[in-house]
Design a protein that fits this description.
Low-confidence stretches: none
Keywords: ATP-binding, Nucleotide-binding
Number of domains: 2
CATH topology of the largest domain: Rossmann fold
InterPro entries: AAA+_ATPase, ABC_transporter-like_ATP-bd, ABC_transporter-like_CS, P-loop_NTPase
Order of helices and strands: EEEHEEHEHHHEHEHEEHHEE
Pfam families: ABC_tran
Number of strands: 12
Largest sheet: 6 strands, mixed
Distance between the termini: 52 Å
Strand content: 25-35%
Radius of gyration: 19 Å
Protein name: ABC transporter ATP-binding protein
GO molecular function, one term: ATP binding
């Protein structure tokens, strides 16, 4: 399934009917195949926004469209063919192996009670190889390290073949090598990606656009090199931020200090 555009218009969310909004009216679009980074300090509303995108909870206002389809007008199975998520919270493995967890990604594409098809197994094989999980295929997921488990969750999402992939801090728990592998993977995927990040330098390197949140309010949206100014980063994260360009690569590097 090919990547699809993501259109979010005026979405907001608050706990209960009269609770204080956690996310205020937010709008943005991501072109098919684009990578959007969602940035902000703890409590900014990043995880709330992601929950709306992967259909964990409906927005109280506004709409979310993937490829022109309102995700809340689709069945749960149809939505799962379009959107997959990799979360920070890793659920118990219940004794399942890596292979069995990755196979779960094919569930939205199968009829009820049917077994894996040859196509399913081919997709699973490719994903295992792509994330270097073949040697771990028959290991109980509960015996893996945090980084290995994270790679398994990414593999399960890729096996789902979504049009939009939502990643919540995907490099958490990963060592430097596997962080680089995930970054390289994100750049090479043929799908629209929304990724929550704390690392501004990583966001500058892999994202086509960024959305910056603070206290549930959007602070800026657009290409990283225009949105991530010293002023906006300093104001949003309550630090003194300075952005420099590294030569000869031209990559951006932020340095931070506590304000006087």
């Amino acid at each position: 399934m090919r990547a699809a555009d993501l259109a979010v218009k005026d979405v907001s969310w608050a706990p209960g009917k009269s609770g204080q909004p956690v996310l205020h009216s937010t709008s943005f679009t991501v072109a098919a195949g684009g990578v959007l980074g969602v940035l902000g300090p703890n409590g900014a509303g990043k995880s709330t926004l992601l929950r709306l995108l992967y259909r964990f909870q409906p927005p109280q206002t506004g709409s979310i469209h993937v490829g022109g389809h309102n995700i809340w007008s689709l069945s749960a199975r149809a939505a799962a063919r379009r959107i997959a998520a990799v979360l920070q919270e890793q659920t118990p493995s219940f004794g399942l192996t890596v292979l069995e967890i990755v196979r779960l990604g094919r569930t939205p594409h199968r009829a009820a009670f049917s077994s894996s098809s040859r196509k399913d197994e081919q997709i699973i094989d490719r994903v295992l190889d792509r994330l270097s999980l073949r040697p771990l295929a028959h290991r109980d997921v509960g015996t893996l390290s945090g980084g290995e488990r994270q790679r398994v969750m990414v593999a399960r999402a890729l096996a789902q073949e979504p049009q939009v992939l939502v990643l919540d801090e995907p490099t958490n728990h990963l060592d430097i090598r596997h962080q680089l592998e995930i970054v390289s993977l994100i750049r090479g995927l043929n799908m629209t990606i929304v990724v929550s990040l704390h690392d501004l330098n990583m966001a500058d390197g892999i994202c086509d656009e960024v959305l910056v949140l603070k206290d549930g309010y959007p602070q800026g949206f657009g290409p990283p090199n225009t949105v991530l100014t010293d002023y906006l980063v300093s104001k949003t994260f309550r630090v003194d931020a300075q952005r420099e360009r590294l030569t000869p690569s031209g990559a951006a590097h932020f340095s931070f200090a506590l304000p006087n």
